[in-house]
Amino acid sequence: MEFQLDNDAEAFRLEVRAHLDDVLTPEVEERIYRSGAAHDDEFARGLVAKDLFAPNRNAMEVQLLKEELMYAEAPVYLSETTRMVASVIRQAGTQQMKDRIVPAAMKGEITIALGFTEPDCGSDLAAATTKAVRSGEEWVINGSKMFTTNGHIADYVFLLARTSPDKPKHKGLTMFLVPLAAPGIEVQPVWTLSGERTNITFYSDVRVGDDCRIGEIDEGWAVLGIALQDEHASGWGPHIARLLHHAEQWARAVEDGEAPPLADTDVRRRLSRIAIELEVSTLLQRRCVWMADQGQVPVAEGPMSKLFSTEALVRAAQDIMELVGPDGLRSYFEPTAPESGRFEHLMRFSLGTTIYAGTSEVQRTIIAQRGLGLPR
């Protein structure tokens, strides 16, 4: 595995960074943050115009794009879930669905949110109780989903529903692509600790055609597994890099002629530890990219990347908050706060990352069972 960037890759990284510096002004960042939505139509259209939405590039350059978007805290979560579901449809959808959905999704013309978790199931997705009952050429859906992030602005939801209640829980599930404009759907906001809006969605006698089904009836767990493989291989290192950047700026600042915080041995020690864990996080994620490019499935390696990078982010955020002290608690975008309140925001944000895309406990279980071969 060789992760050293060549000249073309480095030039591409700089191109992406220049575009993000141009469009993600402080005013735009604050507007997006205060909306609570991890999506912005104008920003997404700008990526499409620059061929940065779904670029036809090699695996490492695509990874560099993701790293720069994450480092800039760009509003791309809905775009990412849309591309993820488009990839699932390519593999498991009908030809009609491939023709209708995939091109529009890859051009940013439609958006797709995720409907997996339920209020009473938590991380046990297979325990879903939302039902889909066959009625002629249609399905009638009843139930609710929790954490349907961007469900209030998306066009579709990638929905997991139980179609055979009499079968074992992993065997009676089916995946659907449900239009969120369909009658009978209600979306209510849920605000997270980091200020992000997610949603709880309710489905009351929602009718969809059988052409909305993805994969075979009762084979939804296998279809969902395609999506979860991508989610579990996520890496959060760029957020550590952003935090480290602001921490270093704070540590170099000189006030009232006193020595900067960087002169303190403990400050340097903590920053060095964060830098080391950033390097590990980056390498774990790029290993996943390399494996996928080689035709290998990062079954355990993906969860390793997600687990380590999110917990390293929490450790880093706590470390920096301790260093900065009470001033670090001043709010995000507060003009008098150190680094415009980045420390306070990243502290709140970091805690949720150990839950997104599968909790740390779920990731450890996958690593133990599927990576190390340990018993349940």
TrEMBL record:
Pfam family, one: Acyl-CoA_dh_1
Keywords associated with the record: FAD, Flavoprotein, Oxidoreductase
Domain Acyl-CoA oxidase/dehydrogenase middle: 113-200
Reactions catalysed according to its record: a 2,3-saturated acyl-CoA + A = a 2,3-dehydroacyl-CoA + AH2
InterPro entries in the record: Acyl-CoA_Oxase/DH_mid-dom, Acyl-CoA_Oxase/DH_mid-dom_sf, AcylCo_DH-like_C, AcylCo_DH/oxidase_C, AcylCoA_DH/ox_N_sf, AcylCoA_DH/oxidase_NM_dom_sf, Mycobact_Acyl-CoA_DH
Gene Ontology MF term list: flavin adenine dinucleotide binding; oxidoreductase activity, acting on the CH-CH group of donors
Domain Acyl-CoA dehydrogenase/oxidase C-terminal: 232-371
Swiss-Prot/TrEMBL cofactor(s): FAD
GO cellular component labels: plasma membrane
DNA damage among keywords: no
Family of this protein: Belongs to the acyl-CoA dehydrogenase family.
Record-given protein name: Acyl-CoA dehydrogenase
